[in-house]
Fold:
Amino acid sequence: MWSYAFRRVLMTIPTLLLVITVCYLMLHATPGGPFDSERKISAAVLANLQAKYHLDLPLWQQYLYYLKSLLQGDLGASFRYADWSVNDLVANALPVSLAIGGGSLLLSVFIGVGLGIIAALRQNSMVDYLVMLVGNLGSAFPSFIIGPVLIMIFAIWFPLLPAGGWNDYQLAYMVLPMALLTFINVSTIGRVMRGSLIEVMNSNFIRTAKAKGLPMRTIVFRHSLKPALMPVVSVLGPLAISSITSAVVTESVFSLPGLGKLIVNGASNRDYTLVLGLVVLVTVVAVVLNLLVDLAYALLDPKIRY
Amino acid sequence: MLRSKQKAAAEAIAANVGAVAVDGRSPWRDARERFFRNKAAVLSLVILTLITLACVFGPMLLQHSYEDTDWEAMSLAPTLLNGHYFGTDELGRDLLVRCLIGGRISLMVGLMATIASVTIGIVWGATAGFLGGKVDTVMMRIVDMMYAVPYLLIAILMVTLLGREFYLVVLTITVFSWMDMARVVRGQTLSIKSKEYIEAARAIGVSTSSIIFRHVVPNLLGIVVIYTTVTVPGVILTESVLSFLGLGVQEPMTSWGVLIEDGTGVMETTPWILLFPAAMLSITLYCANYIGDGMRDALDPKDR
Structure:
């Protein structure tokens, strides 16, 4: 187990280096420098500026400086927002994304697992059809269609909630974005949970438990829940990452000041360092999440031996 | 007497064999029949064909152009009177023609990126599967790495840096769409390589090229077809997300994602500008998913 964990941790390093290097080189190959402004700068000032940011060095040294500052947790300065470092921008945006994304993921685990259990135990009942319907809708309709439809229904036809925007973590502004993300996540978790519980309930050891005359409640909660949850754990990693990714869409739809909005604004303003910094940050988070899920999986499933 | 009996039996057997040969069915014919028995898949195929035909030929047949402003009809609701069957957008451009032109771009990106990523995936997976060993390990590690990366963000970075030309959007989407195919093809190649019927074919002296073309490729094709139909909706969806974020093809060109983004801004007053392209994209994705399911049911060898 420990050697597996060690190898698994080591494996993340080439992934991170690859992404950072490719992104850095792509950024470097783009024409235009950070000091190409309309205001002419004298040659001496330009030379000083370039020396300050190590731009006068060969590419590989610049790259090493960049890696060093990344290791120190410094994502660099923004091209477009004067006096703002990428770190400051992230510090403002991250909590918003975390609240919406993390909150909805937590919510959807409970709802998804709950609905999945009911659907699996009562196949072809109303709840079962509901889970299947939500699953189909959530996987077939893209979030940027479901989102506006939610706004249309709950903010325009029945003006119960604000159509978008942000007001200092006020709950009303968080309901619709969280509902959207939860809906999409529940569609995956519910389907996976339903399928895996049906499979577990058909297995031999559950038949034995039934034959012993155990009550249904004990069978479900003591015997079948843990093995049935394994596939759910394995989709949590991809789901968490897709929550980060779909934050890009959700935050655009509901105009929330989170990481997703930041990266889209950065992309349309051609704020290269900001986009690069965010991509690096999110990649690190995604790779670490994948790592955690794999390790959790190895811990939870006694059948897996490395 | 005995002779003639044996002869008669032999003839009967021969006749039977002949009858069986005439009645023989290829796996592909089986698959086709299974697919056409699946009503949802067939209906989806018909609808998707109609949408494609409308997108390709519709703009030539309709009276309005996708970039001309109709000064007398801005933000017009859907009507049958003056040819604006889907209404017009806030600049007075005919929404039906724009939906069809946008569909052309979306479907075209979908088609091209699918072809490109399927080709890369097959070559990558088959190479890794056939060569095995260290090469296989390294190639599959790279696939694992690509999976660990949050692709949409890197796609955004690529589109920001490279530009928003049509072929660059295709390239960006392709880079992150080939891994599923590579994995599946590799797995299939590995398992086919060690199957008994391959061994049997070797044992009776079938040449390597016949083994590959008669036994390996047909078994690979099924799964390739399945995963191609699964790739299409994913690719179309990625293109629409990029367009929706304003990072796809640029005005006056359009795609379903761009139209949906436009519609979102004005849905309070003129909801049809959102609803028509959203409906077209959703129907296309839904149909593509059903066709993929139908293909899987028809071609999956485990299901026989």
